[in-house]
Amino acid sequence: MIHLDYRDARPIYAQIVDGFREKITTGVLEPGEKLPSVRELAGELTINPNTIQRSYRQLEAEGWIATVPGKGCFVCGSEQCQNQERSRLFLAFDDTTAALIAMGVARESLISRIQKGGASHA
To answer: Structure pTM?
Structure first.
């Protein structure tokens, strides 16, 4: 379900949060869909259940998921979350674009990459 990269500088819980955000925004996980239990996901990823719990708490605080006592965690269908994620990604895009331009990358090169629409870049 979620892929962890132990060479990534981000903490494990942040990778889990980002993984779920991506799955929700891309429609892999749909509103109302039940997430794996903390124990189930911890066992699948072979990590401490407290890490999963921390990730779920953050996702819930941000409005991505809701916990139903005795039932589990479920994906929320909040358009606000979609808008927040879009804003976050645009900010990251803006920062990256500014850094690339500062490094001397031509605007035309950036435009060309955007026009490829996320296709593999060599």
So the answer is: 0.69
pLDDT tens readout for residues 67-121 = 988 999 999 876 766 777 778 789 989 999 999 999 999 999 999 888 887 665 5
Number of C-beta neighbours around residue 16 at 10 A: 25
- Cα 81 versus chain centre, distance: 11
- Specify whether the CB–CB gap between 31 and 75 falls below 8 A: yes
The pair of three-digit structure tokens given for residue 88, joined into one six-digit string: 């976050």
Task: Decide: helix, strand or coil at residue 9.
Answer: coil
Residue 86 to residues 9, 11, 12, 36: CA-CA distances in angstroms? 23, 22, 22, 25
User: What does the block give as tokens for 69?
Assistant: 């006592």
Neighbours of 35 (CB within 10 A): 22
DSSP class of residue 70 equals: T
- Residue type (1 letter), 17: V
